[in-house]
Amino acid sequence: MSDVYVMGVDMIKFGRFPDRSVPNIGAEAALMALDDAGLGIQDMQALYCGNLGQANAMVGQRILQEIGQTGMPVVNVANACATGATAFREAWMSIKAGMYDVVLAVGVEQMGKGLLGGAGGGDGIPKEGLLGSGTMPCVFAEAGMEHTKEHGTTFEQFAKISVKNHHHSTMNPKAMYQIETPLNEVMNAEMISYPNTKLMCSVNVDGSAAAVLVSEKKAKELGMSRAVKVRASALASDPFTDRDLVMPDVNACTRLAAKDAYEQAGIGPEDVNLVELHDCFATAEMLHYENLGLCKDGEAGKMIDEGHVELGGKVPVNVSGGLLSKGHPLGATGIANIYEICTHLREEAGARQVEGARIGMTHVIGLGTACGIHILEKVN
Amino acid sequence: MSETKPLPVVDFLKIPDDGDPYLEGYRCKKCESTYLGERNVCSKCFARNEMEVIKLSETGVLHSYAIVFRSFPGIDVPYISAIVDLDDGGTIKGNLINIEPDPDKIEFNMPVKITYGDALGRKDKEGNSYLSYFFEPA
Ligand SMILES: [Zn+2]
């Protein structure tokens, strides 16, 4: 099987674009990624398009209607917050399978403002606030409090994660926000679901990201100077755990995908130089330090207290600003993370550059549950 | 029409004509995994048609929680969204009541019991009342 390389990758600056259509937002990133690869839409053999909000509305084809209808096969993908990563992975698999040499993956989302989560409608009466809460800030607060129960993790430690990611985003011009948020500001912001304050919740934004993936043969033909090698692509669903029915398990699913990814790449967590992980809430990021093996179980609090996950630390996490400050356009997030890692591996990340980065990891998790992990490696 | 019986807030809350309401579980006879609501296949051990219907325990311990300060419009806050491990198997989620919504007052693993009551006055389109379950400190 051929190795797979990212030849072109880009994302638009995340923001709010209520006057644009979903395909129009996606088309912009697609063209940027094609330009980055030095290729045109006519060179693409297939398109894998990730979008959640219009999952039944042929977004991939409508993107091509804006940038070039070549008749290529299009696959539209929906997999909760792992949608973008799944589209990228489908593209990767098509090259692995020997079907194609050059394919395009696009992730795009247009979000409303406000709380995400089930309002618990359906038959009968609303269950929200009656049988607990299905809002996302609460669901991830409950997952964080499980960590507090087991390891004594504090509200302040969770809050520090948000301080870190907001700080990182000040160096990322493509992030939604570039604003420092000191610890007292994070802790005193409106409490949404304890222990997550408003500044500890990801930002709902519109956005898109895209990548051109190529086979080794094609990469050599095009020139390897800015190519990034895909060392692993893992996707897991949630294995059975006892509390599954009421508590979506982001931990078991991530651990399963991480194990697969490390095995594919033939490396361990100690070899990873930077990570973009799914900080949909500050409480979630804490869990994934351990789930991805960046530290031992019970040491996540120490990772943030001692600065190991900051830019300049042992393994910087979410130097893009993360979902907390860069923003979280659901279907685009999984490819935007890949853009961030590739940018560091290409030494093009400017002020937030992780020096000497050779291997990076992306992680997304969609409730329901889907976890996508990619490991990327510098070629030169 | 004078007294009409309330409807159950979820399918696994059972309201017998005579006797007290209770929560119903399905337990796999092969691996003892406990499910809420009817099913025929065990998602843990994959056994088919090995489910037995059980009454879930009315006591348990607080596994995890969050205190909700912002919810959807029209929902009263704050309240405690709680995850409870029942004493004889099964985990359920609901509101923890009769305790201050303050992390200093709430202890992990504290014993709780299930109580039943009207669903906070909520009625469906036909005007039916509902019976819900709640947790409170035991
Ligand atoms: Zn079983």
How would you sum up this structure, described in words?
The complex is a heterodimer of chains A (about 375) and B (about 140). Chain A is of the alpha/beta class and about 375 residues long. Chain A contains twelve helices and eleven strands. In chain A, strand 5 and strand 6 (about 195) form a beta hairpin. Chain A is globular, with a radius of gyration of 19 Å. The mean pLDDT of chain A is about 95. With about 140 residues, chain B is an all-beta fold. Chain B has one domain. Chain B is about 0% helix and about 45% strand. Chain B has no helices and ten strands. A six-stranded mixed beta sheet of chain B has the order 1-10-9-6-7-8, with no helix packed on it. In chain B, strands 2, 3, 4 and 5 form a four-stranded antiparallel beta sheet that branches. Chain B is globular, with a radius of gyration of 17 Å. The mean pLDDT of chain B is about 95. The chains are: A alpha/beta (about 375), B mainly beta (about 140). At the A-B interface, helix 4 and strand 5 of A face strand 6, strand 7, strand 8, strand 9 and strand 10 of B. Bound molecules: zinc ion (ZN).
Q: How do the strands line up in the largest sheet of chain B?
A: 1-10-9-6-7-8
Quaternary structure type:
heterodimer
Question: Can you name the CATH architecture of chain A?
Answer: 3-Layer(aba) Sandwich
Report the β-strand fraction of chain B as a percent range.
over 45%
Structural class of chain B: mainly beta
Order of helices and strands of chain B: EEEEEEEEEE
Please summarize the sheet with the most strands of chain B.
6 strands, mixed
Total tally of structural domains of chain A: 1
Query: What radius of gyration of chain A results from the CA coordinates?
Result: 19 Å
Radius of gyration of chain B: 17 Å
Q: Describe the global form of chain B.
A: globular
Main beta sheet of chain A, described?
Answer: 9 strands, mixed
In what range is the share of β-strand residues of chain A? 15-25%
User: pLDDT below 50 for ≥5 consecutive residues: which ranges of chain B?
Assistant: none
Highest-level CATH class of chain A: Alpha Beta
Mean pLDDT of chain A: 96
Can you list the ligands bound to this structure? zinc ion
Q: Tell me, what's the shape of chain A?
A: globular
Helix count of chain B equals 0
CATH superfamily of chain A: Thiolase/Chalcone synthase
